[in-house]
Amino acid sequence: MIHSLFLINSSGDIFLEKHWKSVVSRSVCDYFFEAQERATEAENVPPVIPTPHHYLLSVYRHKIFFVAVIQTEVPPLFVIEFLHRVVDTFQDYFGVCSEPVIKDNVVVVYEVLEEMLDNGFPLATESNILKELIKPPTILRTVVNTITGSTNVGDQLPTGQLSVVPWRRTGVKYTNNEAYFDVIEEIDAIIDKSGSTITAEIQGVIDACVKLTGMPDLTLSFMNPRLLDDVSFHPCVRFKRWESERILSFIPPDGNFRLLSYHVSAQNLVAIPVYVKHSISFRDSSALGRFEITVGPKQTMGKTIEGVLVSSQMPKGVLNMSLTPSQGTHTFDPVTKMLSWDVGKINPQKLPSLKGTMSLQAGAPKPDENPTVNLQFKIQQLAISGLKVNRLDMYGEKYKPFKGIKYMTKAGKFQVRT
Amino acid sequence: MLESNKDSAKLDAMKRIVGMIAKGRNASELFPAVVKNVASKNIEIKKLVYVYLVRYAEEQQDLALLSISTFQRALKDPNQLIRASALRVLSSIRVPIIVPIMMLAIKDASADLSPYVRKNAAHAIQKLYSLDPEQKEMLIEVIEKLLKDKSTLVAGSVVMAFEEVCPERIDLIHKNYRKLCNLLVDVEEWGQVVIIHMLTRYARTQFVSPWKEDGGAEDSEKNFYESDDEQREGTERRKKPYAMDPDHRLLIRNTKPLLQSRNAAVVMAVAQLYWHISPKSEAGVISKSLVRLLRSNREVQYIVLQNIATMSIQRKGMFEPYLKSFYVRSTDPTMIKTLKLEILTNLANEANVSTLLREFQTYVRSQDKQFAAATIQTVGRCASSISEVSDSCLSGLVCLLSSRDEVVVAESVVVIKKLLQMRPAQHGEIIKHMAKLLDSITVPVARASILWLIGENCERVPKIAPDVLRKMAKSFTSEDDLVKLQILNLGAKLYLTNSKQTKLLTQYILNLGKYDQNYDIRDRTRFIRQLIVPNEKSGALSKYAKKIFLAQKPAPLLESPFKDRDHFQLGTLSHTLNTKAAGYLELSNWPEVAPDPSVRNVEVVELTKEWTPAGKAKKENPAKKFYSESEEEEDSSDSSSESESESGSESEEEADSSEDSSASSPNEQEGESASESEGRSKRTAKKSWKTRAKSDSEDEEKENEKSKSSDSSSAESSSAEGSSSDAESESESDSGPDSRKVTKEKEGRPKQARSTLPKDVSLLDLDDFNSVSTPVALPTPVLSPSLRADLEGLNLSTTSSVINVSSPVFVPMKTHVLLHRMSGKGLAAHYFFPRQPCIFGAKMVSVQITLNNTTDQKIENIHVGEKKLPAGMQMHAFSPVDSLEPEGSVTVSMGIDFCDSTQTASFQLCTKDDCFSVNIQPPVGELLLPVAMSEKDFKKEQGMLTGMNETSALIVATPQDFTPSVILQKVVNVANVGAVPSGQDHLHS
């Protein structure tokens, strides 16, 4: 299946290569570079590139291209999903996934890759198993290793791989037993010029951090499970229970994992917590344009909106902007024409606004489109869909765990057309 | 450093080497030094040496052999994980010399007790195959063995090996098909993808298409083939006129939960499975999951959108509810934007097109000009496919012509040109407007389009056309080649229609073209000149010049670029690239007739048990029993004791079934103890019920627990007794004369047993019948009453029952016209089927004909004249009617043997003066004969009906009518059948 993997940085250097079958010359990447050149932006490089003898499938994350070389027919999503899993694993191991970090930990990376694929077919992709095989490097461990000469390759063998619950390590022990669940919802919306909603939907996830001793069996139930329109589960969730009782029943993996992601469809009217008032105008005659934006709360259910960040890609004709914000800070990059305004908290009494003028290129025609405004925000302690966890029960172990649930609403792809 | 004694130094060295490998630098000269460390005690060093070895062994084959012995030793290690990793590395060393060693290792490993080692063996198969394809035959054997493996760990890897080595050997899958379907949910996610893709291909070769709505006749033979399975499908299947193979259904049902997987590849695999093999009505469930995937990374979006685009062309309805999910965001990469646009276009219909067009207006103004251009093309496609909006689209596009952006204008021109070409109505205004644009537009394609448009419509704009030509002649030399060609065309066209004004201009242009740098243009010039300018040598063609240039051109079809992708399997690389990738396995078309479905049955012994009377008898037991049993699948050792937890009457039946099965499976060893065989048959039953049982398992569990605890004490004692009687029966089967004594003994036993425990009866009876199945004559008089009853039951189910014709349940009074009075010169004839046994012959269907005389004269000598019957058909005519009075009527009856077909019987109905050709075509329902039989017999007969014709008719029943009696009424209305008294709440008719 997957023949080789090349890691390419944004300047076009191959800084890591790994082969699972016979070696493929790195010249195969020339086709990739060609495609990269053709696509003006990194995002536009096609994920699948055919070459005379190989096919290059790539993902682009953290400014690194992960290019897999395959030779025969294979479902492309299979490879792409795997590459994403590789990136997730690196992130899990090293905290960040960047070129210097990978270069520093090249041996660990190599060992991990060796375990993840055998002959190009995924072998162990669960991070719990991998961590058992190859311990992630920590500062403490590096110090200990240099002194004692011990290694960061696990000396036990991956017993998890053989068990019925491959996602969980055996023999987990904690002094404080705790299970935290974060219900995070993101609003994806397109708001049109006049402020009416074109589409809006809610995508939610439940991320869990479970540190429980032994083999606990958890059940999580919701007050209003009918809200969930479409769900996808971590493999640990028993699907049949969900089908029949709408209860999440599972033996959790150890540590952090995504338990569930769900979708609340557009049919249930989505409450939009913010509104944006804008007036952006370019005039034909003068080289100046007016720019004004106000952000205000709407349907917030009494919660404050925090972490508001307004960003907008200005048209190419805009040379510079002189703006004054009523709160927060703003920046405008004259090269990328990106305006961003870090608003912070919204105070309903005194709405934040950003006013000023834009200086346009002289002589150039006025841009025909006003820029779209992208919005980011956060609301703590609120799940905008109204989803509520009813209770969490544990079976199979004697102790009493500490349980916690947190709700949060965020803006996903939230766009306001102006 | 590698020579150092210290592990830490070695490790450091190895790390540096691996670093070099990672960067792609050559480290092969260190090979001898590294290989020495292969036996290192330190695991990390060992692993790094493995990494090195696998990378360079190919280049240094001789030296690599040094390491082989280490691996061979490790293959025998007691730790399964060490065995596995040794096999992994050994098979990764691509050195042809060690092929025999690898082969041996794989063979050993495939029989290993640890599933993890077997999994690695499956991986090694592919490696060996790529190293030496000549080992194929041997490897197929190993694959065959591993396919039988029941571990979820192995399943994914071995199917992968299968796909790589021998995808054409579909016969290897048959026996494992059901197992794979059932294991699928528990296999790791990567394996799921591979298995689902393989099963999709398999299903396409083994099942008939579920897409034909009226494919009743050709699927009929499968309808009855396994009564057991049919039962399992329950009501959901009965609603459909097409009967799906239960295995086919099994696959579809078992993959459905996987749509909820977090792995996009799995979801996509299930989606393509549903798309390719499920009935069209059920494929809708995938759209929701696919739309969910759109939230994920850009690469996943790209692939998923491509697949949705292909799907949305064929089945619009699937994604229509999700229309808004495909709205474009300004932050999407261009390739995602265009794909979304593509899908939006495919989804456009009369209802939503106005919303879409409003959305498109926003896109057209996008800063991403490439995307804006794509939007304009999209608008063009909408206009051409939905005629209601084409005018508004056109006017919208014309508005865009005044846009300031050149790309937008150019694209609009091209699209307008295509639209106008499609409807050559009067659009003079638009053409004039575009002619004006010619001064400002610089994009060659757009200019060429305008020129072409003017040329085509030059008669409609007689004033402007020559003027445009004049302008163009001026700027000819500075134009793009594309434009030059169109100028030449325009000139030629004008020359032909309006030579007075343009003759000189055209000749000027032709002269310019003659000396152009581009040979294409020179060629064209020469060609046009010869064609249109009359000279003495001008050939025959010039006469037709006008026809050639001004012919009606067919309008271009604005089609989706995804139109031709549907012949690739969705979700494959080939589909994404729209070319056949290496190793792409074509998805075959549905077979016309399904191959033998019995090949999927597992094991011969189990097979007979599953599908012969055993299954049938089981059915009669309340379904609950199976649920509770199947719970205990794991502890099959308990199965015998568990059987006693049933109530008496049930276990009697149970015994019946296993008797039958043991009788009908001669391969089974006779020495085998009866209780064991019973247990086994139950296990098979369990297997078949497992899937359904799972869903209800929660409630049943408790129930089962209860019954188990209450019975457990008694069960033990009885099972002990059972086993002792086993021993007896064994000995008895050898010695015939003894049997009398033994049965006598037994006669006493049941009574005693019954007083304490009714369950024992079944066990003992079972023993008896074990001996019956051996050629021992059992003297009937001595049998205990219960035994005799059982024997009778056995007889009933093995010999075919006598057909007792029952009286019809219902006689419809519907009559059919045989001869209308107008065509019969006053003689009218009606017929109907009285549903009586025919007096003329057993095979004949009786038909009653009522003759009416509507004239005012006597009709004499009415009789049947010449008969024109298809081969094999027979007819017993009615006795001639001497005379029929005016307004009189007479009813006669006749018998026709339709040979069980619905062929028409034609004959002549004659009077004294005339002959009228008439014909009778029987409805299928009238060819049947109601037969009284028990439900049990019915099931058996049903089982034997395999291969016979099945016909179906649609019965319309309103939901409130959904009671058995009403349905019965409706059924007997169309067919002459009887109702079978049924223990279950659904109907066999």
Automatic annotation (TrEMBL), chain A:
PROSITE patterns with a match to the protein in the record: CLAT_ADAPTOR_M_1 (PS00990), CLAT_ADAPTOR_M_2 (PS00991), MHD (PS51072)
Database matches in InterPro entries: Adaptor_comp_med_subunit, AP2_Mu_C_sf, AP_mu_sigma_su, Clathrin_mu, Clathrin_mu_CS, Longin-like_dom_sf, MHD
Keyword Transport among UniProt keywords: yes
Entry's Gene Ontology BP terms: intracellular protein transport; vesicle-mediated transport
Domain MHD: 176-417
Cellular component annotations (GO), alphabetically ordered: clathrin adaptor complex; cytoplasmic vesicle membrane; Golgi apparatus
Subcellular location(s) per record: Golgi apparatus; Cytoplasmic vesicle membrane
Keywords, ordered alphabetically: Cytoplasmic vesicle, Golgi apparatus, Membrane, Protein transport, Transport
Record's bilayer topology term: Peripheral membrane protein
Family of this protein: Belongs to the adaptor complexes medium subunit family.
Protein name: AP-3 complex subunit mu-2
Species name: Oryctolagus cuniculus
Gene: AP3M2
UniProtKB/TrEMBL annotation, chain B:
Ranges for region Disordered: 212-240, 615-759
GO terms for biological process, alphabetical: intracellular protein transport; vesicle-mediated transport
Bilayer topology: Peripheral membrane protein
First-listed, main subcellular location of the protein, grouped into a coarse class: membrane
Biased composition (Basic and acidic residues): 212-225, 617-628, 737-750
Residue stretches of biased makeup (Low complexity): 710-726
GO cellular component: AP-3 adaptor complex; clathrin-coated vesicle membrane; Golgi apparatus
Function: Subunit of non-clathrin- and clathrin-associated adaptor protein complex 3 (AP-3) that plays a role in protein sorting in the late-Golgi/trans-Golgi network (TGN) and/or endosomes. The AP complexes mediate both the recruitment of clathrin to membranes and the recognition of sorting signals within the cytosolic tails of transmembrane cargo molecules. AP-3 appears to be involved in the sorting of a subset of transmembrane proteins targeted to lysosomes and lysosome-related organelles.
Identification of the protein by name: AP-3 complex subunit beta
Classification lineage: Eukaryota, Metazoa, Chordata, Craniata, Vertebrata
